[in-house]
Specification:
The protein is mainly β and about 400 residues long. The protein is about 5% helix and about 30% strand.
Length: about 400
């Protein structure tokens, strides 16, 4: 069975009806230094526990990798020290087909330009790559495992033109540059990684340039970059997700309160929703697609209490605010969401909670969501890249058949 790629590793199944959602805080983060710690997007392991990273304060605290049980017990698996990496970004970890977790740090390593690392569920850390500038500098992305079994991502700067790169890394840690960005031509300074589409190409966003304020691009496995969209006034700082309809979906910041857009692999662009403050402001995390086909995400601020929201939107643009944070239950969510195997969804916030350093929360849908069937984890354990229930992009025939059968039963 080949690895699944281009998938949404965190997915939701929520109704689009404006009903009250139940949010439960199951962990309050803390900071010994008093600086914001930036907990990452969560990923659920095959053991049912959640895994993620803490960015740290770039000075006394270089960040960490943690395991968090559903009942709120946190265990630090890895403490970064600088030479082995520093400041893992809040996009979080990838659960790969070998059962280990892979991620990046913004800085640290032998040249202090960032690293790529592997960590086992037991906490054994291996530094696979130390960036040195020519091959990239300051990766801020989550990784994706391609159909060839290799890992792909971006660096925010460095490369041939110092505007960032798309890179490929083998499981053994051999790094090669797929493409180097040129600010005026392709856009540059990517703050998000890439997704592999069903056509085998990779898609991503650049946070600036391209003759405007950023771009959506396609890059072939051989390194040919094509600009699909140039933004003027809106900044595409988050990554993309490919829906089951074949289109790509993303968000922008600034140029108002932010927006949600759809773009086809050929570049046909549609603005789906513009935020207005009351319904959210400044989305800072990538969208995910639920098993019901709708898209789900968070905004950093805005909402009823101006402390951020969780929202859903259909591929046709029907928008619903599902939850507004209030402070004690968390504030300022900046990470993507995860649907647990139990059908609830999970996330983190940067601030709020009892310590005001953020929380890990569980959001229970207004209507019960069927839990993923028991075979979902069996498929994951057999070597399929699976951390959620439904998958986007390439799928194995066996998994897709079971998913369709299960959907018909609901």
């Amino acid at each position: 069975m080949k690895p699944i790629i281009g998938y949404a590793c965190s997915l939701l199944c929520l109704v689009l009806i404006a009903r009250a959602q139940s949010s439960n805080v199951f962990y309050n983060f803390s900071s010994a230094s008093g600086f914001i710690v930036y907990p990452s997007t969560l990923v659920q392991g095959t053991d049912g526990n959640f895994y993620g990273t803490i960015t740290g304060d770039f000075q006394n605290n270089h960040g960490s990798v943690f395991r968090l049980t559903p009942d709120g017990t946190l265990t630090t698996l890895v403490t970064f020290t600088g030479p082995n990496g520093s400041a893992p970004f809040s996009t979080g970890l990838l659960l790969a087909s070998d059962g280990n977790f892979y991620g990046t740090t913004q800085t640290g390593g032998t040249s202090n330009f960032g690293t790529i690392f592997k960590v086992t569920p037991a906490g054994a850390l291996t530094t696979l790559v130390s960036f040195h500038g020519t091959n990239g500098h300051e990766p801020e992305c989550a990784l994706v495992q391609g159909s060839d079994g290799n890992f792909y991502g971006t660096t925010n700067s460095g490369g041939a033109n110092n505007y960032g790169t798309v890179f490929k890394m083998t499981p053994a840690g051999a790094l090669s540059t797929v493409a180097s960005f040129s600010l005026n031509l392709t856009g540059g300074y990517p703050q998000a990684g890439v997704v592999q589409g069903s056509d085998g190409n990779f898609y991503g966003t650049n946070g600036s340039g391209g003759g405007g304020t950023g771009t959506v691009y396609k890059v072939t496995p051989s390194g040919t970059v094509t600009v699909l969209k140039v933004f003027l006034g809106n900044y595409p700082l988050t990554g993309l997700v490919q829906g089951r309809d074949g289109n790509l979906y993303g968000t922008t910041q600034f140029g108002g309160d932010g927006m949600i857009y759809q773009i086809s692999p050929a570049g046909a662009y549609t603005a789906l929703h513009s935020f207005g403050g009351v319904d959210g402001n400044s989305p800072q995390a990538a969208l995910i697609q639920g098993r019901d086909g709708n898209l789900y995400g968070t905004t950093y601020t805005g909402g009823a209490n101006n402390k951020g929201t969780v929202f859903s939107i259909s591929t046709a643009g029907v928008f619903t605010t599902l939850y507004s944070f209030g402070g004690p239950d968390g504030a300022d969510p900046s990470a993507s969401l995860l649907q647990g195997i139990d059908g609830n969804f999970y996330g983190t916030t940067v601030s709020g909670g009892s310590t005001n350093f953020g929380v890990a929360f569980q959001l229970v849908p207004a209507q019960p969501v069927p839990a993923a069937p028991s075979w979902a984890w069996a498929v994951a354990a057999a070597g399929v890249l699976a951390t959620g229930y439904a998958f986007i992009g390439r799928k194995t025939g066996t998994f897709q058949k079971r998913l369709k059968e299960e959907t018909r039963r609901k």
